[in-house]
Amino acid sequence: MLAVKGLKKTFGTNTVLKSIDMQVDKGKVIAILGPSGSGKTTLLRCLNALEIPDEGIVGFEDHQVDFSQEVKQQELIKLRRKSGMVFQSYNLFPHRTVLENVMEGPIQVQKRDKQTVRAEAIELLNKVGLKDKKDLYPYQLSGGQQQRVGIARALAIKPELMLFDEPTSALDPELIGEVLRVMRDLASEGWTMVVVTHEIKFAQEIADEVIFIDGGVIVEQGPPAEVLSHPKEERTQRFLHRILNPTE
Amino acid sequence: MLTSNMVFGGIVIPWELLQQSFWPILIEGIKVTIPLTLISFFFGIIIALITALVRISNIKPLRWIFSVYVSAIRGTPLLVQLFIIFYLLPELNIMIDPYPTAIIAFSLNVGAYASEIFRASILSVPKGQWEAGFTIGMTYRKTLFRVILPQALRVSVPPLSNSFIGLVKETSLASQILVTELFRKSQQIGATNLDQIVYIYILAAFIYWIICFVLSLAQHRLERRLDRYTAR
Q1: Number of folded domains in chain A?
Q2: Nearest CA-CA distance, residue B167 and chain A, Å
Q3: What is the pLDDT of residue B226?
Q4: For A61, phi and psi rounded to 5 degrees?
Q5: Could you say which DSSP state residue B109 is in?
Q6: Enclosing domain of residue A91
Q7: Whose CB among A216, B61, B105, B115 lies 3.0–4.6 Å from B48's, allowing a Cys bridge?
Q8: Any idea what the CATH number is for the domain that residue B35 is in?
Q9: Distance from CA of B67 to the nearest CA of A (A)
Q10: 3-state helix, strand, coil in chain A (%, to 5)
């Protein structure tokens, strides 16, 4: 469904991504792991052109963007509309209610019928367990609840691909479970997902493929049973050891 | 009812004159000062918003022109700006009354200062809000108008209210280009009562104070209403 070729990104003199190739098949869940500063979030943000890569191709079946050439704004917007994104810091619209947050994309961007969108939005909120909060403002919700609204908002535009940028990293530990539960449901419904995460156990459970990235290159990739349980590369081993034994 | 002058330790307060002058001065305030403020502020805000949007955009030549405008207005006295416009328009064969001339000058002045308020409040909205708009498929313009501006305008209300109250007082400068507003009226009354002129000016100050006091009450109410979606 999505093929990435030769993706490069530099910030000033700092090369964050050095020629990344990856492929995302329909219905699969890809987990991206890596130490902080490894480039994993930048990679995710290049997939929907929140960062503009210096070089490389981000290609969906029916829409390819080659960043080695000048890219028109219109092309970027078209690329962006393929994916929904869930942010580490939720980024809900604070001046709109929960329901309005979810309805904003379908109504304002897709110009769909308001009654239908409303019914769908309530259904989505029901799915993430927040139907009864639909008329509240984001500041009235806990972090976990805000993040679940963030997921519903991203789903509402019916994207082909769901991107998650460390969706639980800003949450208190006791709130992480409720967000992971929603993501697990999405995975089992067959959503195609790319998830940047530090939750090793979660990646092990729901990912079809794990990509370990360090220093802007993919160090190791494969099914979680290989990469997470029997990593071949020393860098992967060290990273997993550090994350699983944080106090050592 | 106080009908005669009262004496405090040698100071004679001319109550009768103050009572006679109160309404004529207040009426110029209501008829001229307040409309002058409202109209100039209205146009000023429109100029300010356009200026701010151009200055955060990436249209280079326009950005440069508007930056020069803001810099020039902020770098010169309002009184001088008033005089320049007052004498410039006839040079350009544009014959208009002092009152609209004052509106042009005040609007341009407010436009420059308030554009900085708008620019700062737009920049104060977290970058994540832009990104959230982009990821649900919005264009730059849509994100600006649906996501960023509603939040930025909320932030800009307190400083804008300050500008507005400031403008009420600055309109007194229009007296210098022959607009008969609150202050010029008191000058005229004072000119025929030179011995008591200080009391006339104190009266004028008092009337400005009342107007501004009422406006600041309105400001507080507006801010409270706009607080509905922010955490306390």
Answers
A1: 1
A2: 30
A3: 80
A4: -55, -45
A5: H
A6: 2-37+54-244
A7: B115
A8: 1.10.3720.10
A9: 26
A10: 40, 25, 35
A140's tokens: 């009235």
Looking at beta carbons, which residues of chain A come within 8 Å of B135?
48, 50, 80, 83-85, 154
Range of the domain at B43: 7-227
Residue A44 located in a structural domain: no
The CATH code of the domain that includes A76 is: 3.40.50.300
Give pTM, 2 decimals: 0.89
Mean pLDDT within B101-117? 98
Residue A89: list chain B partners with CB under 8 A: 128
The CA distance from A219 to A35, in Å, is 12
What are A145-156's pLDDT values in tens digits?
Answer: 999 999 999 999
Q: How many domains does chain B have?
A: 1
Task: Label residues B82-99 b or e (16+ Cβ within 10 Å = b).
Answer: beebbeeeeeeeeeeebb
Residue B134 in any domain: the answer is yes
| Closest by Cα among A171, A76, A21 to B135 | A76
Q: Looking at the domain assignment, is residue B72 inside a domain?
A: yes
Q: What ipTM goes with this model?
A: 0.94
Segment B135-184, tens digit of pLDDT: 999 999 999 999 999 999 999 999 999 999 999 999 999 999 999 999 99
Record: contact B136-A109, CB cut-off 8 A: yes
Closest-CA distance of chain B to residue A91, Å = 6
Indicate whether B187 belongs to any domain: yes
Which residue of A72, A75, A109, A151 to mutate against B (max B Cβ within 10 Å)? A109
What pLDDT is attached to residue B2?
53
Given this model, what pLDDT does residue B225 score? 84
User: Does A139 sit within 8 Å of B230, measured CB to CB?
Assistant: yes
